[in-house]
């Protein structure tokens, strides 16, 4: 089983998927889906289309020159089958994948960290400059809560006792 | 889709440049050739007259390698090429040329033209 790479978006083509086009000079173009085939027919450059891997690598969105990518490379020389080699390769594949994922995450965090700094800066500026938009909330007086007719209640003098006030309402 | 009257480029070094399909050797009623189909062809033009193994106007057997029409393959994927090509064969169905300047599809393996696969630039 051979897994090919899409000529346009560089994703993996599994057996039974995609379209293969052979040009006049016997160059073989493989596409993972009709979307990539259509873009090729429209003569679009994958380096200028944002969702392709070529674009992402070119603009520093993905890692390109990492040693983990050296393992996943097309080799035209066929390897002689060796049981030990096959076993160690299978073990190494998992390890390489782990390392690749970890490095990708690290790159992602690195890319996000610059954005986080900018976001904090903007928040701080907003807080300093636009504080007048935030209305201060005063604590509600206790009397107001007990009596539903709160507006009348507020007119009562503060010095008067609780019993006097109750008598006046009755 | 190769049918009677289709012009095909020849990718081997037998000496023929363009051939015309005279008959498609298949058992279906429609008699349309795809990659790996045997045809009888007549030679229309030659690359060089002196060293050519074939003669203009003569009939030969040929096997279709590339077709412009997109066709499904055994594994479910699809393939199309930018031209129609074929390779000339002897009456015993052995290749006339000794080298193929083009691709050979793996459908030829199913038709047991394994000799052609070893002569070509790439098997697709």
Automatic annotation (TrEMBL), chain A:
<comment type="similarity">
    <text>Belongs to the eukaryotic ribosomal protein eL24 family.</text>
</comment>
<dbReference type="InterPro" id="IPR023442">
    <property type="entry name" value="Ribosomal_eL24_CS"/>
</dbReference>
<dbReference type="GO" id="GO:0003735">
    <property type="term" value="F:structural constituent of ribosome"/>
</dbReference>
<dbReference type="InterPro" id="IPR056366">
    <property type="entry name" value="Ribosomal_eL24"/>
</dbReference>
<feature type="region of interest" description="Disordered">
    <location>
        <begin position="140"/>
        <end position="170"/>
    </location>
</feature>
<dbReference type="GO" id="GO:0005730">
    <property type="term" value="C:nucleolus"/>
</dbReference>
<dbReference type="Pfam" id="PF01246">
    <property type="entry name" value="Ribosomal_L24e"/>
</dbReference>
<dbReference type="InterPro" id="IPR000988">
    <property type="entry name" value="Ribosomal_eL24-rel_N"/>
</dbReference>
<protein>
    <recommendedName>
        <fullName>TRASH domain-containing protein</fullName>
    </recommendedName>
</protein>
<dbReference type="GO" id="GO:0042273">
    <property type="term" value="P:ribosomal large subunit biogenesis"/>
</dbReference>
<dbReference type="InterPro" id="IPR038630">
    <property type="entry name" value="L24e/L24_sf"/>
</dbReference>
<feature type="domain" description="TRASH">
    <location>
        <begin position="6"/>
        <end position="44"/>
    </location>
</feature>
<dbReference type="InterPro" id="IPR011017">
    <property type="entry name" value="TRASH_dom"/>
</dbReference>
<keyword id="KW-0539">Nucleus</keyword>
<keyword id="KW-0690">Ribosome biogenesis</keyword>
<feature type="compositionally biased region" description="Polar residues">
    <location>
        <begin position="158"/>
        <end position="170"/>
    </location>
</feature>
TrEMBL record, chain B:
<dbReference type="InterPro" id="IPR000218">
    <property type="entry name" value="Ribosomal_uL14"/>
</dbReference>
<dbReference type="Pfam" id="PF00238">
    <property type="entry name" value="Ribosomal_L14"/>
</dbReference>
<keyword id="KW-0687">Ribonucleoprotein</keyword>
<keyword id="KW-0496">Mitochondrion</keyword>
<dbReference type="InterPro" id="IPR036853">
    <property type="entry name" value="Ribosomal_uL14_sf"/>
</dbReference>
<keyword id="KW-0689">Ribosomal protein</keyword>
<dbReference type="GO" id="GO:0003735">
    <property type="term" value="F:structural constituent of ribosome"/>
</dbReference>
<comment type="similarity">
    <text>Belongs to the universal ribosomal protein uL14 family.</text>
</comment>
<protein>
    <submittedName>
        <fullName>Ribosomal protein L14</fullName>
    </submittedName>
</protein>
<dbReference type="GO" id="GO:0070180">
    <property type="term" value="F:large ribosomal subunit rRNA binding"/>
</dbReference>
<dbReference type="GO" id="GO:0006412">
    <property type="term" value="P:translation"/>
</dbReference>
<dbReference type="GO" id="GO:0005762">
    <property type="term" value="C:mitochondrial large ribosomal subunit"/>
</dbReference>
């Amino acid at each position: 089983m051979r897994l090919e790479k899409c000529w346009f978006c560089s994703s993996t083509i599994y057996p039974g998927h995609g379209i293969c086009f052979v040009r006049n000079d016997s160059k073989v173009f493989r596409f993972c889906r009709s979307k990539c085939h259509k873009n090729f027919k429209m003569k679009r450059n994958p380096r200028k289309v944002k969702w392709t891997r070529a674009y992402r690598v070119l603009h520093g969105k993905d890692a390109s020159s990492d040693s983990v990518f050296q393992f996943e490379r097309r080799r035209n020389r066929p390897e002689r089958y060796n049981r030990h080699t096959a076993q160690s390769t299978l073990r190494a594949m998992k390890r390489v994948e782990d390392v690749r994922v970890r490095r990708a995450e690290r790159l992602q965090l690195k890319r996000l960290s610059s954005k986080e700094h900018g976001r904090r800066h903007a928040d701080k500026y907003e807080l300093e400059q636009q504080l007048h938009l935030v209305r201060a909330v005063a604590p509600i007086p206790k009397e107001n809560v007990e009596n539903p007719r709160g507006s009348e209640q507020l007119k009562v003098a503060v010095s008067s006792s609780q019993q006097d006030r109750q008598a006046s309402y009755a | 889709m190769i049918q009677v009257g289709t012009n095909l480029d020849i990718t081997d070094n037998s000496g023929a440049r363009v051939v015309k399909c005279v008959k498609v050797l298949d058992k279906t009623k429609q008699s349309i050739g795809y990659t790996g189909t045997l045809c009888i062809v007549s030679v229309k033009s030659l690359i060089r007259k002196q060293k050519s193994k074939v003669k203009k106007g003569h009939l030969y057997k040929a096997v279709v390698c590339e077709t412009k029409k997109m066709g499904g393959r055994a594994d479910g994927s699809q393939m199309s090429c930018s031209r129609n090509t074929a390779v000339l064969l002897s009456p015993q169905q052995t290749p006339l040329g000794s080298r193929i300047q083009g691709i050979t599809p793996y459908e030829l393996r199913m038709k047991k033209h394994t000799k052609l696969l070893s002569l070509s630039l790439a098997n697709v």
